[in-house]
Each structure stands twice: as structure tokens, then as C-alpha cells.
Amino acid sequence: MHVLFVCTGNICRSPTGERLARAYAAEARATGFTASSAGTRAMVGHPIEPTAARVLADLGGDPGDFQARRLTTALAADADLILTMTESHRDKVLAMAPTRLKRTFTLREAARLATLADAGSVDDLAAARPRFRATEPEDVTDPMGKEEKLFHEIGLQIADLVGPLLSRLRFGEG
To answer: CA 140 to CA 69: how far, in whole Å?
Structure first.
């Protein structure tokens, strides 16, 4: 399974999701699992934002050797699961790759659907979407330009969503 995380600049939220997913998969000894990230308006070539990098490291992820990249149709087409940080990002992915609808969710949406529908696969998530519609926006706030405290809150929020979601999906196994 390949999971693609998407945010705006690809220097805070999506790399945090990517690197935490990799760390959790390694801890679970999951085989055949990969994660990457991209931004809708990526700061191409930039490393993870320094505060986000510290938060990520504190959460057990490796911020090293990272370079931001822009979302492309090819990246979306290659992903088995696309997890965006906001509904706007999800809309941008689907504008580029409309055939990826059943594979594209906000991170909060996927975690919510996985729990409500007891989903064990990406197909289960897609099947649950019409039955469990959101009643409010399912966005992960952008911490850029904000206080360090918000970076920590967002990092924890992403960790609290990614770990259980991928565990429930068994990192693509089964």
C-alpha cells in the first residue's frame, strides 16, 4: 500500500503524516507499505519547517532528508490512499485526478469513517462515505506562521489520526 499525504506547502502537515506513517509501519513491521507527501502549492525542494521537524522528531518520526514537492496527477494516480489535510486539498486532488475519488479522503474523514464503519480497507472507507456524511469541516489546521504550541497540537492531532487509521487498515495487509 502506498499512502500519499497532501497539504499546501508540503513542509509541515503532510510530511508529518508521511514520516509518522513510515515510523508506525516500521514499528509494526509492516511489509509492502510506503508513504510520501506533496503540496498543492509546494515549496519545492525545501526541508520540513524547523518547528514541525522538532515536533515530528519528538513524536518518533524522522524529519531528515526531506524535500518538498508539488502534487501532480501522476503522484495521485500512483497512490492507493490519498490523505489530505483539508477538504480544499481533497478537492484539488480530485480536480487533478477525478478517478481517485474512492481513494481520496481528508485525514480526519478517513479516521472517522474507519471507526464508524469498522473499515479494514480503503474500499471499506469509500463504501462508508455515503452512509456517514460529515456534519462539519474535517480539516487539520495549518500551523504555519503561528505559535510553537499550535505546531505541537497539530503534530499530536496528526499522530492521533494516522496511527490508529493505518493500524485499522493493517498498513495495507490482509
So the answer is: 20
Catalytic residue among 7, 69, 90, 100: 7
Q: pLDDT digit string (tens) for 17-44?
A: 999 999 999 998 888 999 999 999 998 9
Residue 170 appears among annotated catalytic residues: no
Which of 58, 91, 118, 123 does the annotation list as catalytic?
118
Burial of residue 126 (CB within 10 Å: 0-12, 13-18, 19+) is middle
12 counts as catalytic? no
Task: Please give the sequence-ordered ranges of beta strands (E in DSSP) within the chain, or none if there are none.
Answer: 2-7, 34-39, 81-84, 104-106
The CATH H-level (homologous superfamily) assignment of domain 2-172 is Response regulator (3.40.50.2300)
Domain extents for the chain? 2-172
User: What tens digit of pLDDT does each residue of 102-142 get?
Assistant: 999 999 999 999 999 999 999 999 999 999 998 899 999 99
Could you tell me the CA-to-CA distances from 136 to 13, 85, 132, 150, 155 in Å, in that order? 20, 14, 12, 21, 21
Cell triple for residue 126?
Answer: 469509500
Instruction: Return the residue matching grid coordinates 510520501.
Output: 36
**pLDDT tens-digit series, residues 65-79:** 999 999 999 999 999
